[in-house]
Amino acid sequence: MLRSLVLALVLLNGVYWAWSQGLLRDIGFAPEQQSEPQRIAKQINPQALEILRPEQFKQIEEQAKAAADPKECLQAGPLDAVQSATVRKVLENAWPAGSWEMQTLNLPQRWIIYMGRYDTTDLLLKKRAEIVAMNLRLEALNNPALEPGLSLGGFATQAQAEEALLQLNKRGIHTARVVQELQGGVAFELRMPAVSLALKAKLGDVKSALAAKPLTPCAQLASSPG
Known about the structure:
This protein is an alpha+beta fold. It is 43% helix and 21% strand. 15% of the residues are buried.
């Protein structure tokens, strides 16, 4: 009896081994095959794992935060040589390399039809309202020395400006005159292509060095002649 039981166990073990190895698949008796390559692809390869030191982890964390930090492109200009040198000194002392650049501009001469300067803000606003009521176009002044005043258009030559002024005289504009807004020549433009929140905290000294020249988004300044 015992001998028969042992033989039965040996036989059952042999059958199980053959089944588990798929040797009985031809007769329809085999375990279900697992075919899920996506599971294999997700398996962790222990040989590829790298243990980071605390300083390495901190560096990666800081890089990730910097990448997620919203950035803005700012620029200001045109700047003369003195303004450019003042701004450069501030940036070289406090801003990281590559966070700013000073571009050279070749500015053309520019004449405008000008009204001003006005003694008070109220007078300036009154004249502005009168011009708007006449459906005339106003342009921003690009020369701080002409503030507070109004520009009724800019021109590449003095002759073009004088001709346009004659047309405005016919429409009732009698206090305007032609002035040269920009002398032309070499100027400079500050460009800060990716100002992060951390760098924005340092903009105070830059704005002070720029004086009357505002920092504006790059797209807006690109459309301005000065």
